[in-house]
Specification:
The chain folds into two domains: 3-224, Alpha-Beta Complex (Spore Coat Polysaccharide Biosynthesis Protein SpsA, Chain A), CATH 3.90.550.10; 226-297. The chain has ten helices and eight strands. The protein is an alpha/beta fold. An eight-stranded mixed beta sheet has the order 7-5-6-4-1-2-3-8, with helices on both faces. Helix 5 (130-146) packs parallel to helix 8 (209-223) and helix 9 (226-254) runs antiparallel to helix 10. It is 50% helix and 18% strand.
């Protein structure tokens, strides 16, 4: 009998934890041909999320709970969940129920047809602000144009992944994982599944603008070296601009245009422009260097405080 694993990262989700379990369990109960497990990763919640899931796990042994020692982030939580799975297929889903668990059946059907990765593509995004929708579209456009790997637009972490793909992802030693990009990078046969994203069941989003911004540059830095190449282009453009300013300044003196205070325009424009170019260049390079530094320290991506109903050996 094939086994289905569900990975659910949670952070301060006490309002939705029981509903999340109820709906996922209902879907799994209808899958008679498969055994199943639910891996819940508590990402250092400060509310009663862990208590609620511990109680559920005591009554349902297929629910396995991993608790972090502190908040390590969504991608670290998903990574930890993937490493604990034992299923032939693994489905990643957030706890807020914006991604409907009822789509799990459709994902499994596409998997049985021979697809190794079934990723959900959002047709609509209900209950989200105009700013969030527009910023998300802009991010995916930028990532798509900069990335060295073709990463599908309008996709999140909601997807089904075959065991062999999970094993490859688990074998990757890098930190600061951008899993959406890695699932595309590893290849294999992939299939989109379009759906309408629902409103959050309860509670508040755990992805404010600051975290969205971090996820965005994680994706760009992890999957593109084009920003580094862009620096060279900006450098050449800067040199060209400086020559144009120089020629314009010389001409103004030669032909007595008298539209410049002698020396002021060329100095100020040159200083401000080149200072900006240098600062942007240093910032981009520092992002890549910081990633190298993180890898060299070899610290774990997360620390597990406790496990409940550990996976079978």
């Amino acid at each position: 009998m094939k086994k289905i694993s569900i990975v659910v990262p949670m952070y301060n989700e006490q309002e939705v934890a029981k509903e999340c379990y109820k709906r996922i369990n209902s879907v799994l109960s209808d899958l008679d041909k498969y055994s199943s497990e639910i891996i819940v990763v508590d990402d250092g919640s400060k509310d009663k999320t862990l208590e609620i899931m511990e109680e559920i796990a005591q009554n349902d042994k297929k629910v396995k709970v991993i608790a972090f020692s502190r908040n390590f982030g969504h991608q670290a939580a998903v990574t930890a969940g993937l490493k604990e799975t034992t299923g032939d297929a693994v489905i990643i889903i957030d706890a807020d129920m914006q991604d409907p668990p009822e789509l799990i059946k459709d994902m499994i059907d596409l998997w049985e047809e021979g697809n190794d990765v079934v990723y959900a593509v959002r047709k609509t995004r209900r209950g989200e602000s105009v700013f969030k929708v527009l910023s998300a579209k802009m991010f995916y456009k930028i990532l798509y144009s900069l990335s060295d790997v073709e990463i599908p637009k309008d996709t999140g972490d909601f997807r089904l992944v075959d065991r062999k793909v999970v094993d490859v992802i688990n074998s990757l030693p890098e930190h600061n994982k951008y899993l959406r990009g890695l699932f595309s990078w590893v290849g294999f046969k992939q299939k989109p599944l379009k759906y309408n994203r629902e409103e959050r069941f309860a509670g508040k989003t755990k992805y404010p603008f600051k975290k969205m911004l971090k996820l965005a540059y994680d994706g760009i830095i992890s999957f593109s070296s084009k920003p580094l190449k862009l620096i060279g282009g900006i450098g050449l453009l800067s040199i060209l601009m400086s020559f144009i300013i120089l020629i314009y300044t010389i001409c103004s003196y030669m032909f007595n245009w008298n539209n410049l205070v002698p020396g002021w325009a060329s100095i100020m424009v040159s200083i401000s422009f080149f200072a900006g170019v240098q600062l942007i260049s240093i910032w981009i390079m520092s992002e890549y260097i910081s990633r190298i530094y993180d890898e060299s320290r070899n610290r774990p991506e997360y620390i597990i405080k406790k496990k409940i109903n550990e996976k079978e050996e």
